[in-house]
Amino acid sequence: MIIHNLRPRWENGWQAKRHEAAVVANRQAFTEISHRILCSYDTDIDELFAEIDHCLAINRSILQQLEDKCGHKLTDEDWQRIRAQAQHREARECPICLTPLSMGSDGPGEPPGPGGGQPCRETVLLSCSHTFHHACLLALEAFSWGDSSPFHACPLCRSCYQKRVLES
């Protein structure tokens, strides 16, 4: 067997020239198509930066509204009113883990577990008057936003909130 017979046929003669011409034609077609695509885009940099600035201004406005709504600190009187709303709601279990809540000695909570066998878990009251186990809410906050977000949304009503741990 002769090794030179294993080379492609077009390496010898007119077929090599034909193959090379096809490659050059394909490159020219690709270059032309690429040029047409690039020319079809409007690349006005000033307009692009103006649009980015506009979007940033809208985002800043939304964040300012959120901070105005959620950023003020609640007073003790506000927390008493919110706690009364939560007691009126008579939530008996954590909406996250569905186990009984303990609302403290003056709350509507039942003894934890059947016969009081389970240890009491800290309950947290949100400014929207929803109540959760503190550990459940912390886990949900870490899962949904991480620790970087200054505002969190209530898992039930989606309003931003402040929270206060209730004393047992």
From TrEMBL:
<dbReference type="InterPro" id="IPR027370">
    <property type="entry name" value="Znf-RING_euk"/>
</dbReference>
<keyword id="KW-0863">Zinc-finger</keyword>
<protein>
    <submittedName>
        <fullName>RING finger protein 32</fullName>
    </submittedName>
</protein>
<keyword id="KW-0479">Metal-binding</keyword>
<dbReference type="InterPro" id="IPR001841">
    <property type="entry name" value="Znf_RING"/>
</dbReference>
<keyword id="KW-0862">Zinc</keyword>
<dbReference type="Pfam" id="PF13445">
    <property type="entry name" value="zf-RING_UBOX"/>
</dbReference>
<dbReference type="InterPro" id="IPR013083">
    <property type="entry name" value="Znf_RING/FYVE/PHD"/>
</dbReference>
<dbReference type="InterPro" id="IPR042862">
    <property type="entry name" value="RNF32"/>
</dbReference>
<feature type="domain" description="RING-type">
    <location>
        <begin position="94"/>
        <end position="158"/>
    </location>
</feature>
<dbReference type="GO" id="GO:0008270">
    <property type="term" value="F:zinc ion binding"/>
</dbReference>
